[in-house]
Amino acid sequence: MTLREDIEKAFGAAFPIMLGYVAIGLPCGILCSSIGLGPLQAFLLSALFYSGAGQFMIPNMWLAASPVSAIIASVAFVNTRQMLYSASFAPFCQNERKRLSFFFAATVTDESYGVNMAHFQLGEWTVRRALLVNLLSQSSWTLSNVVGAFVGNAISVPLAIASFAMTSIFICLLCSQKMSLDNIVAVVVSMVGVVACKAVGLSGPAILIGAVIGVIVAFAFSRVHASLKARKGRAA
Fold it and tell me: Which residues contact 154 (CB under 8 A, 6 or more apart)?
């Protein structure tokens, strides 16, 4: 199998992702420019960090006057799901070179995960093709952010729209989750935690505190719920 064939197959799989990244990469670049990031910084952020949700969160939390520690921790929490995405590809990387597998795992995102996993399950995919899908998608995202940063110098983004951008990212992440009872508990408790923090004047770290409380309560609920089901099973 030739490199040209791999590129053609990967481009066909990645093209819908690339188009979608143009649509959200441009406003992300504009948002980044609103906090003083230029095209070069937008390029480096997209090339080295490469997290759509995280890159939207950083300028929005900065505009909301959140402390740097809260921004770092919140972005880290949101991006922990990427480790699970990468781990799920481990069976397909067993016979591949470690360096190739590393770069593939390091560039997985929500969208490329879905596309690559579907092709792997059909038995027609390789790690090299999957990596090319990731890199093509990242190239589209990076270029769109850079263009958005250039455009942002001439366009001002209202703070109300900027604030909703981060909210919309969380809504998208929520909609992509399986609505199990545990997840519902996490969502409800996190929302209550954020509202409570803002009510007592902790607006900066509100998202971080709410998320941590939601995860802890949901984890405890999951353990108790599983224990009760096990007891009922033994009693039956």
Answer: none
For residues 32 and 81, the model is more confident at 32
Rounded Cα distance, 117 and 92, in Å: 10
Global model pTM greater than 0.85: no
Instruction: Examine the pLDDT at 149 and tell me if it is beyond 80.
Output: yes
- Half-sphere exposure (CA, 13 Å, Cβ side) for 79? 20
Lowest mean pLDDT among 155-159, 212-216, 224-228: 155-159
**223 within 8 A of 210, measured Cβ to Cβ:** no
Rounded CA separation 132/153 (Å): 32
Burial of 109 (0-12, 13-18, 19+ CB in 10 A): buried
Contacts of 62 (CB under 8 A, 6+ apart): 35, 71
- Cα–Cα distance, 232 to 228 (Å, whole number): 6
Q: Tell me the helices (H) and strands (E) count for the chain, helix number first.
A: 11, 0
Tokens of 141: 């995202």
Residues 6+ apart with CB under 8 A from 134: 104, 107, 108, 109, 112, 116
> Tokens representing 120?
């792997």
DSSP 96: S
